[in-house]
Amino acid sequence: MRPDRFTDKVAFITGGGQGMGQQLALDLANEGAKVAIVDIDQAALDETRKLLDEMGAESLLSICDIASDVQVEAAIKKTHETFGRIDILVNNAGLLRSATIEDTTNELIDKTIDINIKGVLYAIRAVTPIMKAQKYGRIINVASITGKNGDNTTTFVYGASKGAVITITRSVARQLGPFGITCNGIAPHAVMTKMMYYWDEEKKAAMAEKIPVKRLSTAQDMAYLMAFLASDESSFINGETININGGYYMD
Questions:
Q1: Which of these, 12, 15, 43, 41, lies nearest to 29 by C-alpha position?
Q2: Per-residue pLDDT tens for 189-233?
Q3: Domain-by-domain residue ranges, the chain?
Q4: pTM score above 0.85
Q5: Catalytic center residues
Q6: What is the CATH number of domain 10-242?
């Protein structure tokens, strides 16, 4: 880490109250960024605010349901008014549920699409005029290995939603690249956050054995990659969704 890599940069992170989003927020702040975080969990936001305050970071944390276009637009507007710019957008918030095809209800389908697809679209749409005016931006979308390879442990709408995120990433990269804005994604697997509540210890051990590097992933692994994609060092990477799974899936 370099303490000045993100000096004067402003990052807007969805689902930043815990897990990968929280770790990234702390890392970016540690390297000089001002961070705006939205989440639906007030307790998680309070915990993250405490950590950021202890670092002396400039931050703006608020409750926001990313499935609501009105709330997303208001949060991004408030961030822009507070800090004067938004350089980095990280679409990290997501919904993951385990269910068979037969057990996947209409409610679960709708909720997964609302959060995992519409939330990404709303945030990108809201931040685009700001980044275009700046002639600069970094957009990072959290996809999943399931968006490339499918999955047999989560509800089948989850993989579909993450496949959509990969396509959104390519479309945005093509359309916004000429304005100095890049858009990239990451495709994680086996990241041990609260979202993986349904994996017991036996499942974790079995999966670690299947991964060539012989371990599961951490939020810090993800944050390192996202910070790189948020930096100027990645300026010639655009439209990519990078696998980060220890070699479990390669394409």
A1: 12
A2: 888 776 665 677 877 788 888 888 898 889 999 999 999 999 999
A3: 10-242
A4: yes
A5: 158
A6: 3.40.50.720
